[in-house]
Amino acid sequence: MMPAIDANTRLFGVFGHPIRHSLSPAMHNAAYAQLGMNAAYLAFDVTEDGLQAALDGLRALNAGGVNLTIPLKRRAFEILPRLDPTAKLLGAVNTVAFHPDGMTGYNTDGTGFLRDLKAVANITPRDRRVLVLGCGGAGRALALTCATEGAAEIALTEVLVERAQTVAAEIKQLFPSVRTSTPAQNDWPAAARAADLIIHCTPVGMHAGDKPMLDASAFRPGQVVYDLVYVEPETPTMRVARAGGATAFNGLGMLVNQGAVAFAIWTGREPDVKVMRAAIEPALHKRPA
């Protein structure tokens, strides 16, 4: 439900191109309401070419900040003069805070992932063998996040092998104590079984009928499998992981927690993540077969 807006309402929002489906307004507006704040979070269709003008325009309205979706994250990284260390490390901006003297770009994805991993599995990447399935933007970000947190070893898998090798080289340069590997595709099942924490970062599972990249034999008891896909309570990857004995979670909690981190950056207040999650869960799984 759209919140009531008056002249004193503080605006926040999400920029995307195009906005196909966004859960962000519902969860942020629920948090504002729960805290009794006169604020509203809106979705805006913004192109890469129009990003600077859109940022300047919303800041001129005394807005507090915005989230950014693909493909705007990299463009914001390129044009914002002031970047938080989180954005510098990950090479992308998903949150912009507006200040009287300008704008600052942040990336809350890594923190959102770590918060939810601790909440649902009570673990961190420290001293663990990690396997990252897919080394695109999200996979790269979480591989670097795990390296930052002291993972013992990170195996990087990607159909485009050069992409995995690039991420491995970045980790080697920034975190030389973290061991990396880029197993060939026929070695992925063995690499998966050797891992303590498996993070699935590909789009597999976003569409009904998607087949998981690995079968149940690639998983084992004692593992934690974290799938960034959240459109189903149990994704295809989660299903086969659980069949193999692993404990598995979807990425809804990461979505909520990265939003909660952005909320705190903008407002200085900590939202109730349970309220935010409850606002989006009913609508999440209503998609065509």
Topology summary:
Blueprint: E1 10-16, H1 24-34, E2 39-45, H2 51-60, E3 65-68, H3 72-79, H4 85-90, E4 95-99, E5 102-106, H5 109-121, E6 129-133, H6 137-148, E7 153-157, H7 161-174, E8 179-181, H8 188-194, E9 197-200, E10 224-227, H9 236-243, E11 247-249, H10 252-267, H11 273-284
Helix pairs in contact: 1-11, 5-6, 5-10, 6-7
Number of domains: 2
Order of helices and strands: EHEHEHHEEHEHEHEHEEHEHH
Distance between the termini: 26 Å
Strand segment tally = 11
The computed structural class is: alpha/beta
What ranges have pLDDT less than 50 throughout 5 or more consecutive residues?
none
CATH class category name of the largest domain: Alpha Beta
What is the radius of gyration computed over CA atoms, rounded to a whole number of angstroms?
Answer: 19 Å
Strand content: 15-25%
Q: Report the CATH superfamily of the largest domain.
A: NAD(P)-binding Rossmann-like Domain
CATH architecture of the largest domain: 3-Layer(aba) Sandwich
Number of helices: 11
Strand line-up in the sheet with most strands: 8-7-6-9-10-11
Mean pLDDT: 94
Helix content: 40-55%
